[in-house]
Structure formats: structure tokens, C-alpha cells
Specification:
mainly alpha, Hydantoin permease, 562 residues
Length: 562
């Protein structure tokens, strides 16, 4: 019987194991599979509009719509809040491009990119952090999307909002919210089967539909109110007894703007590697990541201000405003139809942003843990299923402190970004050995037992000065030393420069072998003739013998023995 169980387990293992087309260099082993190898030209399908659509997902959403709100409540005036948004989003585009350049040049993603900085095994440290964040943010986004689904259902069936609560008292949610979550989760699931190469149509539809919806919402609010409301004239209003002058508040809000998307900055190369060319990435990033992002914040500010004049209250959260607009389902059929159109647009963006930014990104990271069995699609499905384990209804409705910690996770991520930038640009001169990213213990990126101790030390020192400020901020400890808060207000920049600078010094004091080296031959069929010429690399068609007797075959044989 034991033998039968073993045989069945082995059969299942073989059926679930991934197999790539090795003629296309899609070897599947401990460090590689089809979704982790350097992308060949045939899979690099993203033009400028793909990146416009990609950044649109982080621009045409509820969070960006509400951004001015958080700054106004901290005491900034409207002009100051908008200035922070302009500067903050410009910095986001700069740092995102800085990290994404490795994907544009060498066509590898975050999962593999970290191997040359951290070491083959230690690269699991940033990988596991990203996976944890993807699990949690995916669950929270599904819950927030469920609220929009509930608005749509109320617009169709007004009685939906009066649904009896069938949930036990131990669950801090209502029945209509929970059903909305289930529907949103189910409707999102089919999108997991779309490979990143085919994202153009979803990007196009989402960008146009949601943009039209947001503009229509603003026009309706201005027309109904007869102009903008009093919110637009908000001046500087620091909270009474505030310990900080306006300069520190400005610094804190810029840091907050960048920190909110730091997780997306870290894995920029996961998507930049799909670019047809570098120009496409830059144009799409600037036009949408910066310009569109600023415009959406203006739309949110103007709409909320006009709605204040209409309803006498400030509704920053679109689902709340939409419910008021149709009188919780009791409004006219025209009002409900309009609300459905608007809520569907917000929900659509939320849905695809979650799939692209959390599920697909989580799939890529999970593929790095178990390349034999997990590709992007399987990893995305695992990430989506994890939403039920995470239980976002508990996090959103109860654990406010936990959400604050997640939003402040840039304390740990910005040091990684600093090391990645310094390593790639200053230490390696933008040159890496692709074959050594997949060669295990034979790799020059193996360091000591697969760990680059320099990265560990630099990373710890990067967040050590700011972790105290995170703790006292979350605890709302008003009596804590002001220096802790001030360090925390600059957490992204402190982490970036301390870890980056220390990593540079440690590498100069204790140099590593192979710094600045690259493969002289294109071993994966990665580059076009033009790219190979620019890099000084021999293209695959001129060195086919290397696949039979060269470095790749030897590396694979070694891995099999391990």
C-alpha cells in the first residue's frame, strides 16, 4: 500500500510539474521556468499605451481620488496639497524608472533581479516580503471592490441595501458587504487567465471607461452645485497644538505619497521587461503615472467640494458619495442608472489594478519560490485564494492599526530600492551576467552559501533609524521624542540613501568577484540584433554550439545533481 501511495504521489508530482520548451531556452529547474527567464523579443509586446494603461490603474482609482483629503486633514491648504501631489508623483515616476531600467535592459523581473544583490538564497528575503504584501493587499482590494459591487447591486435592486444581516456577530461586516465581496472576487477571477502579454485590451477599456466616468461625475457635481464648494478655498489649518510647522508637514506628506506606492516601485522590472523599447516605458509612465495621476486628484478635489455644497457634508469616499447620490437606492431610476455607470467604472479599475498589481505580481514572486510547480497564472490563483485566509473584513473594519502598518511598509522597502539602485548603476555599471542568475552554487552571485552578507547589513541599517517613528506613529504616542517622528517623516529617503550608501561602502571595503561582468554571448535568445550590438553581445544565431556543450548545459547538469 505504501508503494501504491508513493507511486500515486509521484504521478501527481509529475502532472503538476511545469515543463517549458527548452528549444526556446525555457528550462524548468530550481531557479528558472518560462516566466522567470529573460523575456525574448516575441514576448515583449508592451508599447507606450500598455504602460499608460498600467499606470492608469494606480491613477484612476479611489485611493488617488481621495489623496487630497489626507493632506487637507493634516493642515495643508489646497495649493500646498496639490503641490505635494505634483512633486510626489514626479518622484514616484523617477524612482520607478530607476528600478525598472534593469528590466528594460536585461529583460528580467524583480524576482530574479534581486539575486545579484542579495545572493541566490537571500533573495528570498525581499521575495517573501513582497508575497506577504501581495496576499494582504489583494484581499483588502477585493473587499473595497466588494463595496463598489454593493453600490451597483443597490442601483439595480434598491432593496439590496436593506438586506437582513445574516452574518454572526463575530464578523464585523454586514450581509450586503459580504455578498458584494463574493461577487467582486468571482468576477475578478477570470482575469487571472490573461497573460501579461495580452493586457492591452483590458488597459484600453478600463482607461477610457473610468476616465469618462470620473469626468462625468465632476461635471454633474459642478452643474448641480452651480460651481465649486467651500472645500476648494481651504487654507492652511494645522491642528490645534500641533508639534510640527508647515515644512515638516510638507515633508511628511511627500514621504507618504511615495510610500503608498513603494511596493509597486520595487517590482517595476516585473512589467518593464515586457516593453518593446525603453521609449514606450518612459512615455507611458510620464503621461499616466505623473500627469494623469495629478489630474485625477484634481477631479476628486473638485467633485468632493461641489458635493459638499449639494449635500452639506464632505464625502471623500466615492462609494459613500454614490450611495447618497441615489438616496441609498430610493432615488429616481435616472439617478440609480447614473450611479451604476460611475460605480462600475471605479470597480472596474479596482478589479484590474488588483489583478495586475497584486495577483499577477504575487504570481511572479511565488514562481521564484517554486519554479518547478508555480508559474505566473498558478501564483496569481494562489494569491487570490489567499484572500479567504486573510479575511479582509476583519482587517478593514477592525484592525485600523494593522492597515497603518501596511501603508508604512516603505520603511522596509525603501532600503531595498536604495541597494538595488546602487548595485545596478554604481557598482555593476548596469552590467549583469544573465546565465549566473540561474546557475545556483556555480553562480558568481552565490556569495557565501547563497547569501550576500553586505545586503543584509545594509538593509537592517536602512530601516533601523525609522522603525521607532513607525511604532510611535501607529501607537499614536504623542509624548514620544520629536526626533522619532521627524525621522519617520523622511523614512523613504533615509532608508534609500543609508542602505544604498552603506551597501556601496561595504562592497568597496570587501569587493566581490564578477562585478561588472556580463555574458559575451546571448545564451537565452533574449536580445534583438540591435540590442546585442549595443551591449556588445553575440546573438544566439551565431553561437548555437554553446547550448550543446557550453555553460548552460553544465549548469543544468549540476542543478540536477543537487
Amino acid at each position: 500500500m505504501a508503494t501504491g501511495l508513493t507511486d500515486r504521489f509521484e504521478t501527481l508530482k509529475q502532472k503538476t510539474r511545469l515543463h517549458g520548451d527548452e528549444s526556446q531556452h525555457e528550462q524548468t529547474d530550481r531557479w528558472s521556468n518560462r516566466d522567470l527567464i529573460p523575456l525574448p523579443p516575441s514576448r515583449r509586446t508592451w508599447g507606450w499605451f500598455h504602460f499608460f494603461g498600467f499606470w492608469t490603474l494606480s491613477s484612476l482609482n479611489i485611493a488617488n481620488w481621495q489623496t487630497p483629503n489626507s493632506f487637507l486633514t493634516q493642515g495643508l491648504s489646497v495649493p500646498q496639497s496639490m503641490a505635494v501631489i505634483v512633486v510626489g508623483r514626479a518622484l514616484i515616476c523617477f524612482f520607478a524608472t530607476l528600478i525598472a531600467w534593469c528590466g528594460l535592459k536585461w529583460h528580467v523581473g524583480f524576482t530574479v533581479q534581486n539575486r545579484y544583490t542579495w545572493g541566490m538564497r537571500a533573495s528570498y528575503i525581499p521575495l517573501l516580503q513582497r508575497i506577504l504584501l501581495n496576499f494582504i493587499w489583494n484581499a483588502i482590494q477585493c473587499w473595497n471592490g466588494g463595496r463598489l459591487a454593493a453600490v451597483c447591486l443597490t442601483a439595480i435592486w434598491p432593496s439590496y441595501a436593506r438586506m437582513p444581516n445574516f452574518l454572526p456577530d463575530t464578523i464585523p461586516a454586514t450581509g450586503d458587504q459580504f455578498v458584494g465581496f463574493i461577487i467582486f472576487w468571482l468576477l475578478s477571477t477570470p482575469l487571472l487567465w490573461i497573460p501579461p502579454e495580452k493586457f492591452k485590451i483590458p488597459f484600453l477599456f478600463t482607461s477610457i471607461y473610468t476616465a469618462v466616468g470620473m469626468i462625468a461625475m465632476m461635471i454633474w457635481a459642478l452643474a448641480t452645485a452651480g460651481g465649486v464648494g467651500p472645500l476648494m478655498s481651504t487654507g492652511v489649518a494645522l491642528p490645534e497644538g500641533s508639534r510640527w510647522n508647515i515644512s515638516w508637514v510638507l515633508m511628511a506628506t511627500i514621504n507618504q505619497t511615495i510610500g503608498n506606492v513603494t511596493a509597486g516601485i520595487t517590482n517595476g522590472s516585473d512589467f518593464s521587461r515586457y516593453a518593446k523599447n525603453r521609449r514606450s516605458y518612459i512615455i507611458g509612465t510620464i503621461t499616466s503615472g505623473w500627469i494623469t495621476g495629478v489630474i485625477v486628484s484634481v477631479l476628486g478635489l473638485v467633485t468632493t467640494s461641489a458635493a459638499q455644497r449639494i449635500y452639506g457634508q464632505v464625502y471623500w469616499n466615492p462609494p459613500d458619495l454614490l450611495m447618497v447620490m441615489m438616496d441609498n437606492g430610493n432615488g429616481s431610476s435616472a439617478a440609480r442608472a447614473g450611479v451604476f455607470f460611475l460605480a462600475f467604472g471605479f470597480g472596474l479599475t479596482n478589479m484590474f489594478e488588483n489583478v495586475c498589481g497584486n495577483a499577477v505580481a504575487g504570481g511572479i514572486d511565488l514562481a521564484g519560490l517554486w519554479p518547478h510547480y508555480i508559474n505566473i497564472r498558478r501564483g496569481a490563483i494562489i494569491t487570490f485564494l489567499a484572500a479567504w485566509v486573510v479575511q479582509p473584513w476583519q482587517l478593514v473594519n477592525r484592525a485600523i492599526t494593522f492597515i497603518q502598518v501596511l501603508s508604512s511598509f516603505s520603511v522596509f522597502l525603501s532600503p531595498m530600492i536604495g541597494m538595488m539602485a546602487v548595485d545596478f548603476y554604481l557598482l555593476r555599471g548596469r552590467k549583469i551576467r544573465l546565465s549566473h542568475l540561474y546557475s545556483g552554487s556555480r553562480s558568481s552571485y552565490w556569495y557565501w552559501k547563497g547569501v550576500n552578507w553586505r545586503a543584509i547589513v545594509a538593509w537592517l541599517c536602512g530601516w533601523a533609524p525609522t522603525i521607532g517613528g513607525l511604532v510611535v506613529t501607529v501607537r499614536n504616542d504623542a509624548d514620544a521624542p520629536g526626533a522619532l517622528f521627524q525621522l519617520y517623516f523622511m523614512a523613504f529617503f533615509i532608508g534609500f540613501f543609508i542602505s544604498g550608501g552603506l551597501f556601496f561602502v561595504l562592497n568597496k571595503i570587501s569587493p566581490v568577484a564578477g562585478m561588472g561582468e556580463f555574458d559575451e554571448a546571448d545564451m537565452y535568445g533574449t536580445f534583438t540584433a540591435k540590442e546585442a550590438e549595443r551591449l556588445g553581445v553575440v546573438t544566439a544565431e551565431f553561437h548555437t554550439d554553446i547550448y550543446d556543450s557550453g555553460e548552460i548545459s553544465t549548469a543544468r547538469d549540476t542543478l540536477e545533481k543537487e
